[in-house]
Design a protein that fits this description.
Structural class: mainly alpha
Bound molecules: zinc ion
Number of strands: 0
GO molecular function, one term: oxidoreductase activity
GO cellular component, one term: membrane
Number of domains: 1
Main location: membrane
InterPro entries: Fatty_acid_hydroxylase, Sterol_Desaturase_Related
Keywords: Membrane, Transmembrane, Transmembrane helix
């Protein structure tokens, strides 16, 4: 295991434990499913996805950034800028790319078939943040590698971005309560749990809103922002939106609960 993998794994575990404690101390919504089975499914997927990346991806975003740096590839190598500025711009652009990628996974019928695994969780908590179809994980990695090489993102910026994205995904999927005033202030900049919960509603209009994973600005700028669920946070039903046909719902059950 490389050093950067160890750093990433440590951040993942610390964020998981802290968010789980926060959920336990200040739960936001009553969960409806068996928690043990859900955690087994969702965390099992984390293991499966890491294995798939190891087997099917010859290089990852970090190695691609090292390659771009050694060969002076990408736009950032044409402009002289301090490394802190490079990191800031890289994180902003990669986060915007993740936003557009998420919109695309909702708009395309084929990509939605993969992404709906994320939405098939009928409760939402910290582990939902890691629940993605292995093929979505691999496609996302290819998109990230392409961007890293085109832009010339530095290796350190890649690691920082991946940690930010991972930690913020766990934070904003947490079934935990933030004081309303803190949420109101925080969601001006980043995606809060109350903001992302709207995205997991079974109401179609709400599913197709709040696509951001880290910064909330993209949803505001591109008019996909929905402040609160229509039914309120206690009433909002979590899961696959209602536009799914019965046959597809059955396939979903097969595809999205691999460990049951
Ligand atoms: Zn989504
Ligand atoms: Zn989500």
């Amino acid at each position: 295991m490389e050093n950067t993998d160890l750093i990433r794994l440590s951040f993942f575990l610390i964020a998981l434990i802290l968010c789980a404690i926060w959920e336990w101390l200040a739960p936001r919504k009553k969960l409806t499913q068996n928690k043990f089975n859900r955690w087994l499914n969702n965390l099992g997927l984390v293991g499966l996805n890491s294995l798939c990346l190891m087997i099917f991806m010859p290089v990852l975003a970090f190695e691609s950034a090292q390659f771009a740096a050694q060969n002076q590839l990408g736009l950032f190598h044409l402009i002289a800028m301090p490394s802190s500025f490079n990191i800031l711009v890289s994180v902003l652009l990669l986060d915007a790319a993740i936003y557009f990628q998420h919109v695309l996974f909702h708009r395309s019928r084929w990509l939605w078939r993969l992404h709906r695994m994320h939405h098939a969780d009928q409760d939402i908590d910290v582990t939902t943040g890691s629940r993605f179809h292995p093929i979505e994980i691999i496609l996302s990695m290819w998109i990230k590698i392409a961007l890293v090489i085109i832009l010339g993102v530095s290796p350190i910026a890649v690691v920082i971005f991946e940690i930010i994205l991972n930690v913020s995904a766990m934070f904003n999927h947490s079934n935990a309560r933030l004081p309303i005033s803190v949420d109101k202030w925080l969601r001006k900049i980043i995606v809060t749990p109350d903001m992302h919960r709207v995205h997991h509603s079974i109401i179609v209009k709400e599913t197709h809103s709040n696509f951001g994973f880290f910064l909330s600005i993209w949803d505001r700028w591109f008019r996909t922002y929905q402040a609160q669920p229509k039914e309120g946070h206690d009433g909002v039903k979590i899961g696959i939106p209602l536009f799914q046909k019965p046959r597809e719902q059955w396939i979903d059950k097969m595809l999205t609960q691999p460990f049951r």
